[in-house]
Design a protein that fits this description.
Layout (H helix, E strand, L loop, with lengths): L21 E6 L5 E7 L1 H4 L5 H14 L59 H17 L3 E4 L9 H10 L6 E5 L4 H7 L5 E5 L5 H5 L3 E5 L45
Parallel strand pairs: 1-3, 3-6, 4-5, 4-6
Antiparallel strand pairs: 1-2
């Protein structure tokens, strides 16, 4: 075989099935059925990548560690300037310092020191992990959609009633818009409910809760969070909800320069 006949093999890309179309029932806080909404297949219909999910969630859990644990070495503990006892004649093992790790009250050998546990994770992997988690919840029919919260003031009783009307049990993650502070305060006293903004949504948040609840303003669409489209009444769902200032969006499925 000559040099020109040598076959160079690059990375093998796994063929994955096409995204699946899924729907979710759209309701109000009273539990009334308002129709069904088609979920974006590229967000809620892909095959979950378990390996990427594991790596990203592990990195996210590591990133929240404070890393402030610390122990003192033999050079940092107090004392130890003089030889504790004579070299010979005591019957004990020879010691040169009372601050040795083998002595009571001495320094710690190979103990933990302050450090950062942060792991570098590519943006494409973080995005794929989030879409995999959302697709897993959609496949398990654990995605709920409300038109709007529409409460005049924060009341925990209203939040409890809404969860009961929507038939949500167990741990619930409510995705809110940045200006939906009334709904956030209403859910604040419920231990089984956690809230987040769609700009801060992560794969770990989705996986650690049994249900994930969106509103028309926060449901991920094809181009950005906030583009809910479906088979409900056209007058009840806007064609494109305006993005609130300072909120993040889900990148489109096409590859961009920033992703390269």
């Amino acid at each position: 075989m000559t040099i020109t006949d040598t076959v160079t093999r690059g990375p093998v890309k796994k063929d994955r099935p096409a995204p699946v179309s899924r729907t979710v029932k759209r309701r109000n806080v009273a539990g009334d059925d308002l129709g069904s909404v088609d979920l974006e297949p590229s967000i809620f219909g892909i095959e979950p990548n378990v390996a990427v999910l594991h790596q990203v969630v592990t990195a996210q859990l590591a990133a929240i560690r404070s890393g402030t644990q610390s122990t003192k070495t033999r050079s940092e503990v107090r004392g130890g300037g003089a030889k504790p006892f004579a070299q010979k004649g005591t019957g004990r093992a020879r010691q040169g310092s009372s601050r040795s790790p083998s002595m009571s009250g001495g320094g710690i050998a190979l103990g933990p020191k302050p450090r950062s546990y942060k792991q570098h994770t590519p943006k494409k992997m973080v995005r794929l992990a989030l879409l995999s988690a959302l697709s897993d919840r959609a496949a398990s029919h654990r995605v709920a959609l409300v038109d709007e919260w529409g409460w005049d003031g924060p009341r925990t009783k209203d939040a409890v009633a809404a969860l009961h009307n929507l038939k949500l049990s167990g741990s619930v993650l409510v995705v809110l818009a940045p200006d939906e502070t009334i709904a956030g305060k209403s859910f604040a006293n419920l231990p089984q409910v956690s809230t987040t903004s769609f700009g801060q949504l992560s794969a770990h948040d989705v996986l650690r809760n049994e249900w994930i609840v969106f509103s028309d303003r926060t449901l991920p669409g094809s181009d950005a969070f906030g583009g809910a489209t479906g088979t409900a009444a056209p007058e009840s769902i806007p064609d494109e909800a305006p993005a609130a200032p300072g909120t993040a969006t889900v990148p489109a499925t096409e590859e961009t320069d920033a992703d390269a």
